[in-house]
Amino acid sequence: MALERTRNSFHWADYVILVLSLLISCSVGIYFALSGGKQKTTAEYLMGDRSMRLVPVSVSLVASFLSAILILGHPAEIYLNGIGFHFHLIGATIAYLTTAFLFVGLFYQLRITSAFEYLEQRFQSKLVRCIGTLLNLVIMIMYAGSAIFAPCTATER
């Protein structure tokens, strides 16, 4: 039996969802750009002048780490191998949220902006901070490669 080629295309509902998600994302950015006032210092720009609460900052950090690997790979994994992988997602979600709230809360109380700044304060050493930064840079380069490669291979047709 010959393999049939299927025509992959968006349904009208897919286009509606795509456009709505882009419009919502853009409108949130435009709203805060127009209503938030102009930032005068880098602390106001980068940290929102420390006026945001713990929950939005934590959720933002978790959401920014999610990528096309999660969006494309996890549904495919569940489809191919069953629902068992879904339990991994539940545990990973709990771990991500717990870590985000724990560290963001700690960083907020200490008035620091990154884990690398925490390393420097904790060990009183710029060398430890630089080593941590370098190791994270290597990990993020490898992660970015796979996060970019995965959707490219999925959409190469």
Automatic annotation (TrEMBL):
Checking Pfam families in the record gives:
SSF
GO MF assignments: symporter activity
Q: Where in the cell is it found?
A: Cell membrane
Q: Which GO terms describe its biological process?
A: sodium ion transport
User: What topology does it adopt in the membrane?
Assistant: Multi-pass membrane protein
Coiled-coil ranges (or none): none
Q: Which family does it belong to?
A: Belongs to the sodium:solute symporter (SSF) (TC 2.A.21) family.
Which PANTHER family does its entry note?
Answer: LD47995P-RELATED (PTHR42985:SF40), SODIUM-COUPLED MONOCARBOXYLATE TRANSPORTER (PTHR42985)
* Name this polypeptide is given: Aa_trans domain-containing protein
Organism expressing this protein natively: Macrostomum lignano
